[in-house]
Amino acid sequence: MKRLMKLLVLSSLVAIGFTTGCNEKQKQEQAAVKPQPAKPPTEVVVPDDVKRKWKAVEIAVSDKQHNQQKVYTIKLGSELKIPGSNLTLRVENFLPHFVMEGTTLTSQSNQLVNPAAQIVIREDAKEIYKGWLFSLYPTTHAFQHPLYGFTLVDYLPAS
User: Fold this and answer.
1) Using an 8 Å Cβ cutoff, are 150 and 121 in contact?
2) How many angstroms separate the CA atoms of 103 and 87, rounded?
3) Do the Cβ atoms of 63 and 148 come closer than 8 Å?
4) pTM confidence score
């Protein structure tokens, strides 16, 4: 009789374990399938005085294979084909005093407090990166490419 009781208790514990495990697994599967709330889109607002003051940026492109670096001057709103590669680099915007206000990215002033350039990189015409280069924080949100590195090094005011 004691043996039967032990067997019943043991089988009950095993059954509870399976039930709990299944429920946990189901919860994990449901959580994985559950749609995540969409992030609100960010908007880039370049103040008119900033648009008038700045015309281009200088971006250093590092060739990791050959341990070389070349600096290119790229006008705002234009793109450059990186020589010897299948990459193009487009400079979308420049914000000399980059700030994020809610979902809006803008410049608080024309002072070079936190200079940032919004870039788009395409490889074989396919967009592989759209983001920001920060001159004071070059590793923040840095784009990782196996062959090339990109750094914002200077900014050119309009004459």
Assistant:
1) yes
2) 30
3) yes
4) 0.74
